[in-house]
Design goal:
It is found in: Membrane. One of its GO terms (molecular function) is transmembrane transporter activity. It is a multi-pass membrane protein. It holds the Pfam family PTR2. By secondary structure, the protein is mainly α. The protein is built from 8 helices and 4 strands, in the order H-H-H-E-E-H-H-H-H-H-E-E. It has 2 domains: 38 residues, no CATH class; 226 residues, Growth Hormone, Chain: A, CATH 1.20.1250.20. Helix 4 crosses helix 6 and helix 5 runs antiparallel to helix 8.
């Protein structure tokens, strides 16, 4: 599909000076063309990570709005700041990373025979699947929160009113997102860095951070579209969450994540990994002692 890039290394009549020398500013070496092609081949899998960021972006917006309406008292004089609930995502990520590196990878290594337990793409796929569970939990908690508001007669409570439901109901969705990030972010970063040419490793790192930017913009776009499309049938995302349908929005995100997961699996199935060169000690029958083998997955 990307063989058209080979034309950049083909010399034509317009690419040659009168002296017979090629115009270097119009041509690229075969090596450089292959490097660009390797980056282009990664883009479909890279794009699958954008929705992952979009799905977790509401933890910094709608989830904080939810926390403001819930009981945040720890003591009589101290309340948990709504935005500080993000700490449960970071804690879950750190704990998962430590558990994976110290325990889980050893168990997986016995079953798969791979040094890292599972491949980078498998690790990212696990993270994307877990992220869906985070939004399922978010939808369920929001349904519970609204039912408490209805049972307490506080559907139209003034701004700042506290519902009789603990803010710790939000911990599962934050924690599951942290677990998903520990799999998805690490797997995605290792994949980009491993499959990128050595001279373009910085480009791979830039693609990783570009995912975060694109995912945030897509989240804003999704909220805007939901606002416009739900005006006639009853606004989903209202300032008064008790009268809104934020749980429907979460279920919409779950559906999009499911489609994105299918797209990811298709991209992984048809992805061609770069050749992995390995050195073999000189022995009779091994020629000059160096051979190049193609692997289905790099073990770096």
């Amino acid at each position: 599909m990307i063989r058209f890039l080979d034309k950049a290394a083909i010399v034509t009549e317009g690419d040659v000076l009168p002296s017979g020398e090629p115009k270097l500013w119009r041509l690229s070496t075969v090596h450089r063309v292959e490097e660009i092609k390797s980056i282009v081949r990664m883009l479909p899998i890279w794009a699958a990570g954008i929705l992952m960021v979009t799905a977790s972006s509401h933890n910094s917006s709608f989830a904080i709005q939810q926390a403001r309406t819930m009981d945040r008292d720890i003591t009589r004089s101290f309340k948990i700041p709504p935005a500080s609930m993000l700490i449960f995502t970071n804690l879950a990520m750190l704990i998962t990373l430590a558990f994976y590196d110290r325990v889980l990878v050893r168990v997986l290594r016995r079953f798969t025979g791979r040094p890292n337990g599972i491949t980078h793409l498998q690790r990212a796929g696990v993270g994307m699947t877990i992220a869906m569970l985070a939004n399922v939990a978010a939808a369920a908690v929001e349904t519970r929160r609204k039912s408490v508001a209805a049972a307490s007669g506080m559907l139209d409570a003034p701004k700042g009113a506290t519902l009789p439901i603990s803010v710790f109901w939000l911990v599962p969705q934050y924690a599951i997102h942290g677990i998903a990030d520990a799999f998805m972010d690490v797997g995605r970063m290792e994949f980009l860095y491993d499959q990128a040419p050595e001279s373009m490793r910085s480009t791979a790192a830039a693609l990783y951070w570009l995912t975060i930017s694109a995912g945030s913009y897509l989240g804003t776009l999704l909220v805007t579209i939901v606002h416009e499309k739900t005006q006639a049938s009853g606004q989903w995302l209202q300032d008064n969450l008790n009268r809104g349908k934020l749980d429907n929005y979460y279920w919409l995100v779950v559906g999009l994540q499911g489609l994105n997961l299918v797209y990811y699996f298709v991209c992984v199935k048809y992805y061609t990994f770069k050749p992995l060169e390995t050195e073999v000690e000189h022995q009779p029958g091994h020629g000059n002692g160096t051979e190049s083998t193609k692997k289905g997955e790099s073990y770096k």
